[in-house]
Amino acid sequence: MRLLAVASECAPLVKTGGLADVVGALPAALAEHGVQVTTLLPGYPAVLRAIGDARTLRRIDDLFGGTARLRRGTAGGLDLLVLDAPHLFDRPGSPYLAPDGGEWADNGLRFAALGAAAALVATGGVRGLTFDAVHAHDWQAGLVPAYLRFAQPRRPVLFTVHNLAFQGKFPLSLFPRLGLPAEALSVQGLEYYGTIGFLKAGLWYADRITTVSPTYAAEIGTPELGMGLDGLIRGRGGHVSGILNGLDTADWDPARDHRLAARFDAADPARRAANKAALQRRLGLAEDADALLFGFVGRMTWQKGVDLVLGALPAMLGEGAQLAMLGTGEWGIEEGSRGAAAAHPGRVGVHVGFDEALARLVYAGSDVVLVPSRFEPCGLAQLAALRYGALPLVAHVGGLVDSVVDANEMALAEGAGAGFHFAPVTQEMLAATVLRVARLWRDKGTWRALQANALRTDVSWTRSAARYAALYREMMADAG
After folding, report:
1. Each residue of 123-132: pLDDT tens digit?
2. How far, in Å, CA of 428 to CA of 433, rounded?
3. For the chain, percent helix, then strand, then coil, each to nearest 5?
């Protein structure tokens, strides 16, 4: 079958978060199940550079205020369609933010254009291209199901929510420019508490809805985590499901990763020790193989629970442990992290910013990777940790529950477990779990067994790609 995927970012071409990793890795995994994927992306400068002199398949004379072209090319092993609309996408900054850090004022039009272009392509508007189904990702592609609902011929569409907290809400004054029928501007459509809701539109009009983990699919149907959309999500009933994210295990491979100080695999985990020493040197930590080393990689935000890590620091230091942190985010948390490093030289090391090589070293050199998120649709840090032999210590939420087997007493008795859960998500419970981890760290035989379990864990896309392929075919059967 032929699938059109639609997203606002895609690794390795343009990335701000885990969405890009999913969009970049899933096509290769789906190919194993007979699904041929073409990915439609906005024509950001980086994407256009990557496809080079790609040919133009169709010109659109007026796409929300300017001329656009649909260009086809390949990059990063992906079959791409690129919406080359300079008036919308040829600008500096991130995909969503201007260089001053504020959102682009016309983000509503920019990503409405992506949805309109996707509908044009999916319904046969580009000669020589036909598709059986469409997979739209997150709010930036939320209007894809809306445009397709009012287009012919019908194409079934799957809408995936990567993080319900980001919803894409814009003023009602945008609606007349969208080219949708008047009936779309209602509670049974785009209207959302006096705004136009892109993510809400995707939830309403899609044939099927997925989130990036089964537990998160259940959580967003509750008032606590539904972000105001729980009623709609419950109303979609059996059309909502969760499919756990995976990793591109060819890219995330400690046996071949050139960024590491020493490569290793499940058959020779002892070589991880060189990465621990390299990480300690890199972040100014005391070079001590016997010190339990906790690592953190990610956004330094309240949602990610970094304040809980800083609050639990006395428990870590009391056990003789070290802490290595890498990330950027909220100013207050960044400053708190820098302050902790200044107050505890040789015990706490912090790099504020992003460095891919250092991130890989944190996963390969830490003994434990902290993922204390207050909510987490799926998360990739715990999957990377498992792949690189670090035991994840995770909050008992979302995809973290689904992807990490807790080393509790029953699991230990059965030789299972590859990480640690804590709940409720509080500083006190994180500190208590740190003490549980430290006790197991001192039992070297048990620790080696847990690490072996982590390295053997299948974090690939294999199972999840099969579920996506089955869901596409189910949508197609229902559509007739």
Report:
1. 999 999 999 9
2. 9
3. 40, 20, 40
258 falls within a domain: no
Q: How many CB atoms lie within 10 A of CB 339?
A: 13
Write b or e for each residue in 353-371: b if 16 or more Cβ atoms lie within 10 A of its Cβ, otherwise e: eeeeebbbbbbbbbbbbbb
**Do 333 and 358 contact (CB within 8 A), yes or no?**
no
Query: Could you write out the DSSP letters of every residue in 56-113?
Result: EEEEES-SSSS-EEEEEEEETTEEEEEEE-HHHH-SSS-SSB-TTSSBPTTHHHHHHH
Question: What's the domain count of the chain?
Answer: 2
d(CA 151, CA 20): 28
- Binned at pLDDT 50, 70 and 90, residue 352 comes out as very high
Burial class (CB in 10 A: 0-12, 13-18, 19+), 424: exposed
Report strand pairing: 36-42 vs 157-161: unpaired
Share of the chain above pLDDT 90, in %: 96
- Tens of pLDDT, residue by residue over 35-71, are 999 999 999 999 999 999 999 999 999 999 999 999 9
Examine residue 335 and state whether it is found in any structural domain, yes or no. yes
101 occurs within a structural domain? yes
Q: Is residue 251 part of a domain?
A: no
Report whether pLDDT(480) > 80. no
CATH code, 424? 3.40.50.2000
Residue type (1 letter), 63: L
- Give the C-alpha separation, 11 to 9, whole Å: 7
Q: Give residue 318's Cα distance to chain centre.
A: 34
Q: Measure the CA angle with vertex 257, ends 254 and 262; round to 5°.
A: 70
111 confidence band (pLDDT: 50, 70, 90): very high
According to DSSP, the residues that pair with 78 across neighbouring strands are: 75
Pick from 364, 366, 342: nearest CA to 352: 342
Measured between alpha carbons, how far is 400 from 422 in angstroms, rounded to an integer?
11
Whether residues 129 and 202 fall in one domain:
yes
Alpha helices in 70-224 (DSSP H): 86-89, 107-122, 143-149, 198-205, 214-219
Q: What average pLDDT score do residues 327-332 get?
A: 95
